[in-house]
């Protein structure tokens, strides 16, 4: 039932906060201290979000409803009301402020990034940059000012984050130069100002004998059949863990032995083709009676409407006795990359199959099928090679492959 002004005025605080709902997501939150806060619950991209709409009586019932109406119109247009508010605040602080330019730059690139990547970049800026220099006119920011921001991140032990923010800020400043709001990029003056990060490598097994042991352990996995199948496919296709657990039956063509991962699921937003070996097809055919009626090839434990948890593969490896320093889900990629290079496969074919970043985004968009004949042979021979290691066959070194 919609709220009335009298009902709001007469609402008394209780021991715990409670809500008075007005409909369509709008409600008044009554706190134990007597505060009356307008809130709007909504969903964007499938996720529940809450937007603060002001405090009663400063914001009247009519004003709160008007704000709800505006937010709902934004949702119809595909706009997140929370992001729209932040952008408005940024523009009010000056169209040439760092925050305003950064959000404009982010908005230009966001459609070409994965959701995870774009959210991560914006969150870093909101947490570590905007509070300190976000209102400053971007053309007036100096290298020492930016270094102070980066040092603050470094001092809390997040050196890698400091480097990534340095990189993002450089892109933002160059965008400001290109759009006439700054004369130069001060981040370029900070080259070498931060200590280098230690390169992190995903733990992986590359010794053929130990790979054979791993393959036998996976085949003998006594946990979930779905998890075992995921481990098997991970070893043979060496896709990223996120791509594996989000695999959908609609993307897989068993008849043509091909898995086409849509651009929106890929790190660089480019369609990726995974040729399926006969062994991979066999794994998928075996699991299809169990999960084929649902969306995901590897659904979660609690619901087949959700993909497998991101921790499932790593947890299974721990259960098999492999520590995080020995092997990870991502390590299947390093394992394949190392051995395939040693075996003499064309480096470009390996890189393309690993879906590594293509410097030229236009070229990447059209070359998703590049080196496909060799990639098809390579994926089949890789699966055959794993089978040989699994059975303990004599290891054939690179210079013996023809």
UniProtKB/TrEMBL annotation:
Span of domain Tyr recombinase: 201-384
Every Core-binding (CB) domain range: 96-177
GO MF annotations, alphabetized: DNA binding
Domain of life: Bacteria
GO term, biological process aspect, one: DNA recombination
Name of one Pfam family that matches: Arm-DNA-bind_3
UniProt keyword list: DNA integration, DNA recombination, DNA-binding
Family matches, as InterPro entries: CB, DNA_brk_join_enz, Integrase-like_cat_sf, Integrase_catalytic, Integrase_DNA-bd_sf, Integrase_DNA_bind_dom, Integrase_recombinase_N, Phage_int_M
Family: Belongs to the 'phage' integrase family.
Name of the protein this chain belongs to: Integrase
Organism whose genome encodes this protein: endosymbiont of Escarpia spicata
